[in-house]
Amino acid sequence: xxxxxxxxxxxxxxxxxxxxxxxxxxxxxxxxxxxxxxxxxxxxxxxxxxxxxxxxxxxxxxxxxxxxxxxxxxxxxxxxxxxxxxxxxxxxxxxxxxxxxxxxxxxxxxxxxxxxxxxxxxxxxxxxxxxxxxxxxxxxxxxxxxxxxxxxxxxxxxxxxxxxxxxxxxxxxxxxxxxxxxxxxxxxxxxxxxxxxxxxxxxxxxxxxxxxxxxxxxxxxxxxxxxxxxxxxxxxxxxxxxxxxxxxxxxxxxxxxxxxxxxxxxxxxxxxxxx
Length: 275
Prior knowledge:
The protein is mainly beta. It has one domain: monomeric porin ompg (Porin), CATH 2.40.160.40. It has one helix spanning 5-17, and strands at 42-53, 56-68, 73-85, 90-94, 98-110, 113-124, 142-153, 156-166, 174-175, 179-188, 199-211, 215-216, 219-220, 226-239, 242-256, 265-274. A hairpin with a 2-residue loop joins strand 1 and strand 2. The longest helix has 13 residues, at 5-17. The radius of gyration is 21 Å and the shape is globular.
């Protein structure tokens, strides 16, 4: 049985309209970007991160679930599993989960480009085991507030973000010290591609961290606090609604207070699906 050409074209158009036409939007790997899900959208991500500083090694595998409440507002949940290794020994188990939200409050579209800005908030309650050595939990509830700007075109990307992490007071009056995070990112798509084709964007991030000194019962603890800067090359590869993000943080400047192990490297691999 042969269908008329007009009917076949109409059927093909209807089939394509049933497939999500919004490719996975781009955000930095280590920084914060303004991307939010479309209304009713669901994102499932597996996030693997590894950090080494002297004899300390911390690795984490997290399941991240995000839901688009509107076209500008998303909420989500992080469920991490951690492995920590230090001189005294090692420990494994579930880390502190996190609840987060992001609201895009500004968006400007031009021919072939989009600029936007968003505010993000995350709360990390204390639920993990803090009695192991090294501990998996922090022993306190932390909060993170961030502001981010992004520009995306067919070839070029750029982002900037500022985040402040307020760390709660743990057992025995321990204050771990707040953190200020600053990120600048550029990206380039070497070859523009269509939605049904694989898409590659190369990224280069500059990530800065300033940590306040820790205190116990109001008294400063030696060998805590300081600044670190990282140069972080990365890759963002997408195919329709699936994405792979990978990058490594390389320390380029360190000014830590007292005797502290400097960060050797950090690496991150993320697999994302948009439904």
